[in-house]
Every structure is written in structure tokens, then in C-alpha cells.
Amino acid sequence: MNGKTTRRGILKGGAAMTAGLAAGSASAAEPDPLITEVQDWAMYTGAGVDEVPYGLPIEYESDVIRRNVEWLTAGPISSINFTPIHALDGTITPQGCAFERHHSGAISLRKEDYRLMINGLVDTPLVFTYADLERFPRETHVYFCECAANTGMEWAGAQLNGAQFTHGMIHNMEYTGVPLRTLLKEAGLDAAGDLAGKWVYVEGADASSNGRSIPMEKALDDVLVAFKANGEALRKEHGYPVRLVVPGWEGNLWVKWLRRVEVLDAAVESREETSKYTDVMEDGSARKWTWVMDAKSVITSPSPQSPITHGPGPLVISGLAWSGHGRITRVDVTTDGGVTWQTARLGRQGDAKALTRFYLDIEWDGSEMLLQSRAMDETGYVQPTKDQLREMRGENSVYHNNGIQTWYINSEGAAENVEIS
Amino acid sequence: MNGKTTRRGILKGGAAMTAGLAAGSASAAEPDPLITEVQDWAMYTGAGVDEVPYGLPIEYESDVIRRNVEWLTAGPISSINFTPIHALDGTITPQGCAFERHHSGAISLRKEDYRLMINGLVDTPLVFTYADLERFPRETHVYFCECAANTGMEWAGAQLNGAQFTHGMIHNMEYTGVPLRTLLKEAGLDAAGDLAGKWVYVEGADASSNGRSIPMEKALDDVLVAFKANGEALRKEHGYPVRLVVPGWEGNLWVKWLRRVEVLDAAVESREETSKYTDVMEDGSARKWTWVMDAKSVITSPSPQSPITHGPGPLVISGLAWSGHGRITRVDVTTDGGVTWQTARLGRQGDAKALTRFYLDIEWDGSEMLLQSRAMDETGYVQPTKDQLREMRGENSVYHNNGIQTWYINSEGAAENVEIS
Hints:
Two copies of one chain form a homodimer.
Chain A: H1 7-15, H2 33-43, E1 79-80, E2 101-102, E3 115-120, E4 126-129, H3 130-133, E5 139-146, H4 163-167, E6 170-179, H5 180-187, E7 199-204, E8 212-215, H6 216-219, E9 224-229, E10 232-233, E11 243-245, E12 258-264, E13 279-280, E14 286-287, E15 296-301, E16 313-322, E17 328-334, E18 342-343, E19 345-346, E20 356-364, E21 369-377, H7 386-393, E22 406-409, E23 415-417
């Protein structure tokens, strides 16, 4: 078979197990743990349904959790953790392990106490209760939410060793809520006159308020005032009871515990959109209004936290791709650091501005690999290399790094975050 | 405005709140709790990211859980609980509140100890470890899983008062796994000769083993050997580490803790497919091989557990529709017990054999309503009334009740499970 091990070849050994040998065990001399274990599973009843009215992952998966990086998180004032994307598959991110980024911590706000004010250049300033919001026509969509600082530590080269830490400030959920345009029209936009050049300023009920300006055109397009994620209420750390969903745009705009939307004739130029969330260029000037998250991808397995645990032969390379401009149309994968590329198989086609899963099924010959993935979206945009980004923006940037990521895989299957030129 | 209250009308009162009156409070005399509450939220930092490495719903949502019905669950031997569909929106069901049905309880099985045997009429009987399964090409799809007994208590008329209990034995998740056909072909199907008329017998590692026969045609079609649900590992109660996903077919076939797949030249006629999961007709004969779950729908809000909490005016009627035969193409809703029907707005188009959310936005005049929904799928099939089902099958059945459900709404907005003819 041209020196390649086939899946059949790999698994034939398994057949012997019917004679009681565990492929998992080091030598055939060891007794198969199944001999006793199976008896246990089959001889006694398991847990009843009253045990977990609301379930959590099984104890054996206790390592699949949000993780934080000490030197990044001083405290609630500025706290970050990361989605364990190296251990997930498919496209949906469970709320329980979806990354968090708070500017003054996650607050606890009851539906009964919740209010949303719409004021400024509107005919009738309004304050909505949570119950009011539930009376407007709702929509349901799947969108990714990526922090603008995701992969930011990589500008200066390979830093954090793991997809969870380099690319884990992203999650992808099915949101249900009321379009912001519906609420703006309810308050009456005639007072704003010509809507061209108008803005909305959105802020949260937390201490940071995290105020941001959004052009009216986007506010009237696909922005959602959301109260459900993946079918259920938003979790406290995701803005319960109401957060803003700004499809395709940087996560900082997705204001949690949404408190107020003011219609203005100019941007506020708040702290969060001037000293923060802008990209400082080589000459010291700042790139501003960089809202849209460009096409990007990352291989989640194999990766530093998800090494190859078997020898040569069949190997599934899998990862995630996304674009704030729409749908992912193609993802290429290289195993030799970009010398040759193969087009990956897209999993279930993700929605526009949502994560798309990709797979490349290969026969690994056991030699070293330099793994990279390169995403393309429906606008024809191609994910750039880190060097191309540095050429355009210098090395002072922190935000909006959508450069191609490289994992070095050694002959043992261990993976490492490296940078190649 | 033709006597109708507009959304604007409803919410104008809200505007006054900017002067400190809470629409939520009983009278204008009461102080607005916000005056102090807001200060608290804005003056102190909230929880840091280390608080919940794996998050749970906020305390205020503690009623949105799986619930069980005492007289239905004697113990782990036969236990059932129900998804709180009355409180969810969108289409995805979080694993934590997705219904459970166990025949001998949920067992705890480590990936290291997991084995899947494929034997019978195959060239090479194989035993796969969990690590082996991860080396085959994977697919990701969203599918609903409905217990054949869902709504079964309604054959004799309105029984349980709540959508969670009448229709909650269903969930909808994004599954990732290996197509069963891939593993069958790995073991070699030539030994089975002509595949027409061949079957696979699937069983789980739990005490019940829950053995079921599946025609080869379906086994080679869209059946998945799944290890991820909604992106993460299957929960213990959903078959960790591996369960069978049989799209569109009754939940009992979705064997959890999948242990063995045997290729046979005839169905086994096991307990689970003879004395159970067959429908006893009027003449005492049994309808067998009723695998596919026909088109069905239910209004989740308003419903007995989700009453209307506001007066006349704008009201969002929402529910779920699904079909084991493919996509939902249309859902009609009536507010007068079937005298007149309106076509509902479909939310994000669900995938084939997955839940589809529907909405009907109306102006409620405050009078009583008899709410029903009627689903249609891509085969042209129309969801029948309970009476039509009884006409065809008599009243001895327990399983496969996809009849139209009726909620009576009184002028106060309270809902009740009723039956009309």
C-alpha cells in the first residue's frame, strides 16, 4: 500500500481484543480492564433522572474549561478567560465554556429590575422593561463573537502555547432577540432627520458602562438586542438578561447588561474607541473604526493542547474559520509550512458571520509538520500571513490580528506554537 | 387605531419612567428600585473570570430545569424527565436541560475503557477504542431527538398541564461524529453479500443494553456514531463518550454508551421493538417498525407554564416544529380553535430533521383564545388532529402521537391544556 498504513491496518489489532486483549494497554500480558468494568456497567443500574435537574459535563472532562492567563488578568477590573477551542468540535460553543471579557466584572441583574432606555434624537424617548422587549417580533441567528484582542499577543511572534490562549477569545452561539432597528423605530427616528452620518451610543449597566458608538447604518442592519443564547437565557457572565449582538464586529461592541441606546449626530469618541480598541501604526498614528473582524482561521486539533496521541497513519486535522464580512467559502491547509496547500472539507456550512468547521483527513507518515490554515470568505478576501500584517501595520498593534497561525508537530505528535517566515 | 393598542401605545407609559416611575411597580407612589439598584451595579465591580471555569445558569433562572413526573418515574429502571421547552427560544437545546430517558440509569464510562465492537456478517470483526474513532473522517449536523412516547399521555385527552410535560421529551443539538457506514465499510460488508434485507443490531453498554434493529439502508444513510453534542463531549446522561444518532427516527434507537453493532440477515425482534415501541391498534394488532417521527409542532409560549403576563396588545406566539422526514416548510397557527388559520413566520430555517422555530406576532384583544399550531414538511405531509389519529389507530396507542395540541388562554392570559373536537 505504498508504505502507507491504512485505517484497516491500524485497527486490525483491535480485532484481537475480542480475545480479551486491550489495544489500550501496554502489553498483551495485561488483563483487559473491560473484563471487570463491563460487568459493572451491565450489572447495576446507573444514575436516575433526578440526579441532575441541570447537568454539567462528566467529571472526566473537567479539563475542558475556560482558562485565564495570570499576567493578563489583574482582577475584575480587566479580566479575560479563553474558550477551550482545542477540545471542542462542530461549531456551537456551550455558554458554560464560552470566553469572558469584563471591564468591571460580571454583574447580577434581575429581569424585574432590568430597564433599557432609548433616548437622544428620537421622537419619543422610551424605557423598556424586560417584559416589554418580549412583546416585539423576535429573530434567531447564529453568530460568532470575537474579542478584538484575540491573537493579539502574537504580533511580536509566537507567545502562548495553545489554541485556547492564542485564539480562544471567540465563541459562537444561536442568539434570539429583537432587532435594534425595531426598538429605534418604536422610539421614532424622524427627530434624527437625515439618518446618514447619525450614530447610536450603546452602554451597559455595569461600572465600566463600556460605551461604544455605532454608525446608524449598522444599527439599522443586523444588530440584535438579545436575551437568549443557544436556546436558554443568557448566562450572568454573558450579559443576563440582555446583551447587544453586533454580527461580524469586534466583541467589545457587544455590550452586556445593555442599559441605554442614545441616538446622536456624531460619534462619542469614548475611551473604548480611542485609547482602546484602535491599532497604533508604525508612525504612531491610530487606525480607528476597525469594527469588522476580517476572515481568520485556526487549526484546533492537532495543536499544543491537543497533540497527536497515536503513531503514523490516519489523522484528522480540524479547525475553525470565520469572517465578519459573511460566509467562509474555502479553507486551505498546509502541512509543510506553506510550500503546498490542500483544500479542506467544510463541515456543516456555517451561517454568515458564524463559525465554520473544517476538516482535512490525511495519512500522517510520522514526520514533522508545519501546520497552517488559510481562510477565504465570500468577498474574495484571503487570510494574510503575520508578516503581511506587520508590513501593513507595523508591530505596535494589539488588536485585529487575523494572521495565519503555525503549529510545529514533531515526530512524536507533540505540537508547539512557532513562527516561520 | 381601530380600537387596537399599538406597541407605541403600550410603551409610552415607559417614557414616564425616566422621571423615576417603575412600570414594573404596582403604583407610581412606590419608589423605583432602580434608583438604588443601578447605583450598586455601577459603583462596584462584579465577578471576575475565575469564578466560573465552567458556568451554570444564573440563580434567577433556577426554574428552567429538566423536570420529572412522579408517577412516570418509578426509579432508575425506567426514568424520564422533560426539557423545559416552555422557557426556551431559538432551536438549540443546551445539554444541561435536554430531556433524559434511561432504561437502567445513566452509567459512568471512561474514554479509556470505551470499546465499540462491529461483528456479525462482516469480513473483519473489529473493536474500536475511543482514540480509534477519532481517526475517521467526521461530520457535523444538527438533529432533533424525540422519544417515541413524547405526547403519549395525550392519547386519552388532555392530561399534563404544560408544554414541558406534553412535548418535552425532545431536544435538538449539533452532533459531531463518524458516519456508521464508514465503520461498517471498515469492517467489510462483502461478507454480508446482497445488503438488501440486511440489518444491524445496536446495543449500549448499560444494564438494559437497549438493543434495537435498524435496516441496513438507514444504517448506511445518515446514522452517526457521535461523540460531541453542541461542540463539547456528550454529557454522561446523553451517552458519554459515544451515542448513536439516528436522524428523524424515534429516540429509543439513539443508543447511548454504544457498545456493539452486529450485522445480521434479519431483525432481532428485541423487547424494545416488540413489547415496547410498537403501537397497539383497536383490534389488538401492533403497528411495528414505526421508526420515523412524523411532522409535529407545539406552541411553547404562551402555554400553561408560560402564561401571558401582560394585558391586551402586542403578543408574540412562539413554538417549535419538526419532521423526521426532512425540513419543515410551513406552520399555521390558529387562535380560535381551528376556525381560521394564519401562516406563522419561520425563524432561522432549521436543518432537515432538526427543530424549526416559528413565530406569530399578533395584537391580542384580551379575549379568550384556543391556540393550536399545525406543521407541514417537505413531503407535503400535514400534522393531523388527535381525532384523526384516533380514527386511524384507535385509543390503545402510547407512542407516536403527533396530533395537534390545544392551549386554552383565558382573558387573564392564563393557559390550560384542553381538548376540543
